[in-house]
User: Which sequence fits this backbone?
């Protein structure tokens, strides 16, 4: 499988993306995957599947694409053109479908170790300082409210539909970002997520102080 070719094609597909899920995000997810792979140091992990899935993980995302059938076709063709065999393609597509936060709301999805690494890598880029920046950037791109006085700090979603109803940037921290630390798979990701979650909680505390005129 020619991962370099996958990288080149995905960089072209996402170069105009303006919601925080663009090429820079994808590069960070790939970098996170490489870091986790180094820490795990396990020869049984298919690194080609991990990196390829990291590059294409947002190609079948309903936040970015309305026609998911077409999106999956494009992804499969890209992988096939890059020399991926049928087994590799199915493994990568499976990761794309199962790794997202919203895909796991109703029921936790079963992921291979390769999928768990991609999931951790993607989630790390959703939290911490970069997560704060991306959350505001995404909310702005969608015209969402920045904050409100009515924030539910203990939301309980039953499905993707109710989760996606939120149109408030600060609410998103409680809907998703502060929960990510407890959802990590690998020990290295758990450690990093804990540190980044502390940073986000400090940010939210400072924000509350400033909104109250005390910061």
Assistant:
């Amino acid at each position: 499988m020619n991962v370099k070719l996958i990288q080149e094609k995905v960089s072209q597909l996402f170069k105009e993306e303006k919601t925080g899920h663009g090429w820079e995000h994808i590069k960070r997810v790939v970098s996170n995957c490489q870091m986790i792979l180094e820490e795990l140091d396990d020869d049984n992990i298919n690194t080609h599947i991990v990196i390829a899935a990291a590059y294409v993980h947002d190609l079948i995302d309903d936040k970015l694409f309305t026609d998911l059938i077409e999106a999956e076709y494009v992804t499969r063709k890209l992988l096939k053109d890059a020399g991926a065999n049928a087994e590799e393609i199915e493994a990568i597509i499976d990761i794309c479908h199962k790794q997202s936060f919203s895909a796991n709301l109703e029921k936790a999805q079963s992921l291979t170790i390769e999928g768990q690494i991609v999931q951790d890598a993607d989630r790390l880029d959703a939290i911490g300082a970069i997560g704060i920046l991306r959350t505001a950037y995404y909310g702005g791109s969608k015209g969402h409210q920045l904050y409100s006085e009515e924030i539910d700090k203990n939301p309980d979603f039953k499905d993707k539909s109710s989760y996606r109803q939120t149109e408030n940037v600060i609410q998103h921290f409680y809907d998703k970002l502060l929960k990510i630390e407890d959802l990590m798979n690998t020990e290295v990701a758990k450690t990093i997520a804990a540190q980044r979650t502390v940073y986000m909680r400090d940010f939210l505390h400072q924000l509350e102080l400033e909104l109250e005129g005390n910061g």
Observations:
- The chain has a mean pLDDT of 92.
- The first helix runs from residue 3 to 13.
- DSSP finds ten helices and no strands in the chain.
